[in-house]
Amino acid sequence: MSASVDLRRLTTPQDLFQAAAEEVLRIATDAVAKRGRFTIALSGGSTPKNLYTLIAANASATLPWAQMFFFWGDERHVPPEDADSNYRMAKEALLSKVPIAPGNVFPVPAEMQVAAAAADAYEQTVRKFFGLAPGEFPRFDLILLGMGPDGHTASLFPETAALQEKSRLVVANWVEKLKASRITFTLPVLNAARCVAFLVSGEDKAAVLHEVLEGGAPPEKYPSKLVKPTNGKLIWFVDRAAASQLSTAA
Ligand code: 6PG
User: Fold this and answer.
1) What tens digit of pLDDT does each residue of 133-152 get?
2) Does the pLDDT value for residue 1 go beyond 50?
3) Per-residue CA distances from 48 to 1, 140, 149, 203, 247 (Å)
4) Is 222 helix (H, G, I), strand (E, B) or coil?
5) I need a labelling partner for 80 at 20 to 30 A (CA). Which of 22, 42, 108, 243 fits?
6) Residue 44 C-alpha to ligand 1 middle, in angstroms?
7) SS3 state of residue 107
8) Separation of alpha carbons 117 and 123, rounded Å
């Protein structure tokens, strides 16, 4: 079953964050009711950060924190206290403000000297948590993703090696234009999720959103095009500015 693409157009960025927060609450509550736990992979970026801030402010009393387990879809190759750390951003915006136990939070060990070793270690953490057999992929209840103006998502940047990875869960990915390594979930992990939700806001994303949702360019040039959950939902939360170049722009 291919992913059902669910394009949710919101007017303002705040409306987008509110709609996404409501979806997180719905999915978390449903997952805990059905399976006793909710597994989520967070994204870096300013758009996801706004969502985390809203959840911390509004949902700290309504979410089943003891049954919620936090991972990261990608991380910069920096220690957790670094200003660029996605873990630090999520901790400051959300995790430090809600009643979640440290044992429910699984940061990427990005302080490790070698990015590939950090990726290997994180892969083992994910395999152990989900009890995966060789060749199996984790099925996250929700993976949150942002999208860069170049169409990258997580740390899957255009024409980088990680796009070709079909068996590993987590890899180190050298990003030439950043002159830096990133640590990222691979596409098979993103596409194994029950639900993937993109958060795309702002005029600077309008051209790439059109390319990703409606353009015919090779997907390697716009990696977000490669995110198609094989048995799950794909939701795009977009605001009016980001949707302004879509052919059916409202
Ligand atoms: C990261 C993110 C990255 C981010 C996009 C969008 O580590 O930076 O994983 O994929 O989500 O670059 O970021 P903005 O929402 O800030 O544009």
Assistant:
1) 999 999 999 999 999 999 99
2) no
3) 28, 17, 15, 16, 25
4) coil
5) 22
6) 5
7) coil
8) 10
Q: Which atom of ligand 1 is nearest to the CA of 43?
A: 9
Q: At 230, list the tokens.
A: 């094989």
**197: CA distance to ligand 1 center in Å?**
13
Ligand 1 is surrounded, with C-beta below 6 A, by 43-48, 74, 86, 146-148, 152-155
Instruction: Classify burial at 82, counting beta carbons within 10 Å of its beta carbon; exposed 0-12, middle 13-18, buried 19 or more.
Output: middle
d(CA 244, CA 250): 8
CA distance 51 to 127: 28
Taking only the tens place, the pLDDT of each residue in 155-169 is: 999 999 999 999 999
Which is the closest atom of ligand 1 to the Cα of 201?
A: 15
* 56 CA distance to ligand 1 middle (Å): 20
pTM score = 0.97
What structural domains and CATH numbers belong to the chain?
A: 5-223 (3.40.50.1360)
CB atoms within 10 A of CB 138: 21
Bridge pairing between strands 233-239 and 170-175? unpaired
